[in-house]
Design brief:
Blueprint lengths: L1 H11 L3 H26 L7 H14 L8 H27 L11 H6 L3 H18 L1 H12 L4 H8 L3 H19 L1
Length: 183
């Protein structure tokens, strides 16, 4: 793991080769996170595990020089990036499904309101998570890393610098708050 930390430091100072090595070494972890994320969201995007990992890599490259303390911080940031990719894909698909800039004509408004689309559910969760983060940033990060990133409680605790028990309490509290917001 010390090698990854050294590579992350080199990558943050602009070494593109080190960044590529980090991705190669953590590729399996990134695939696991992407698979977990996509499995939870169902068929709401056209992305598959590999596409999500590769898009994450491209966005990490475009983000510039971001510094990561260690592997867990990198994976936590990657989870955030994956979340934004999925949300962007849902929004784009939703816009395309509704015709983008085309003129919309609704024939029966009752039918449209009674059918909820899975993409809208993901957007509701995203908005609820943003609201939760504004109330308590750590709760939002715990949900993001656990739900969207698939990290374990121990990995989250290491990343946030808190105990595993604190992460468990935060997870329970966040679930309660999110369920209240999503009702």
């Amino acid at each position: 793991m010390a090698d990854i930390t050294k590579l992350l430091r080199a990558a943050s100072s602009g070494d593109r080769g080190a960044a590529d090595q980090v991705i190669a070494l953590l590729y399996d972890d990134l695939r696991r996170m992407a698979h977990s994320r996509l499995q939870r969201s169902g068929d709401i995007t056209l992305l598959d595990t590999t596409a999500l990992v590769h898009e994450t890599y491209l966005r990490l490259q475009r983000s510039g020089h971001v510094e990561f303390a260690d592997r867990k911080h990198f994976l936590a940031y990657a989870a955030q990036v994956m979340r934004t990719i999925v949300i962007d894909a849902v929004r784009a698909r939703r816009a395309d499904r509704r015709g983008g800039d085309a003129l919309h004509v609704t024939l029966n408004t009752e039918v449209g309101e009674s059918v909820a689309m899975p993409g809208e559910d993901v957007l509701r969760v995203h908005e609820a998570l943003d609201e939760l983060s504004s109330i308590d940033e750590r709760l939002g990060r715990v949900v993001e890393m656990r739900y969207f990133g698939g990290l374990s409680e121990m990995e989250i605790a290491d990343c946030l610098g808190v105990t595993e028990r604190t992460v468990q309490r935060d997870w329970r509290k966040a679930r309660l708050l999110l369920s209240a917001v999503l009702k």
